[in-house]
Amino acid sequence: MNLFLFTGIAASTIACKNEAKNKVEPGEAKEAATPTEEAATYEIDTTASTIEWRGTKPTGEHKGTINIESGNIMATQEAITGGKVTIDMNSIKVTDEGMDEKDRTSLENHLKGTVEGKETDFFNVKKYPTATFEITGITEKDGQKMLEGNLTLKDETKNIQFPIDSDIDEEELSLESETFTIDRTNWKVNYGSKSVFDNLGDNFISDDMELTIKVKAKRS
């Protein structure tokens, strides 16, 4: 195969693979949604709920999970009307298949910031043990429900929205987002960012971080 053709195909493949899914455009924090009088409170089942994450760099990718610590969602049987979720940043896990356990633990500790001298590289969980997401509204875009809320991470609060599917009945509520992408530097997670540091060459980590949220809740 012609070298230039091969290079073009390879570059196109990489670009498609790394194309951001449902890229979030963060805005200023908004007032929390006020639940309607008809709304019931659904307590999140933390054992059945999770946040999945994925990060990439030129040489590969890492993925994992973060636990939900607690939270409630207010809803009628027709719509979500409010709620707040607390995220346990100490629970960050790396779930890469085939990864050496020593390397897995090392990466988890680096992400958490529990390695001496590297506390501020990523999430610095000793200083910021939790993150929060507080619902500010539900909108619709191109026929798709969009959940809107304030994401607070490392004391930085930005309003974001992302597509969801939800199912609500008298006893239970389930919610699952489509995979969406945030720019981590908007929350001052700057380590290895080519947009922040100009001397990294190919030794950078993508600013884009993919998230998928899965929540199960029971009426309280």
UniProtKB/TrEMBL annotation:
Coiled-coil intervals: none
A Pfam family the protein falls into: YceI
UniProt domain Lipid/polyisoprenoid-binding YceI-like: residue ranges: 41-218
UniProt cross-references to SUPFAM superfamilies, sorted A to Z: YceI-like
InterPro entries, per the entry: Lipid/polyisoprenoid-bd_YceI, TTHA0802/YceI-like_sf
Domain of life according to the entry: Bacteria
Name of the protein in its database record: Polyisoprenoid-binding protein YceI
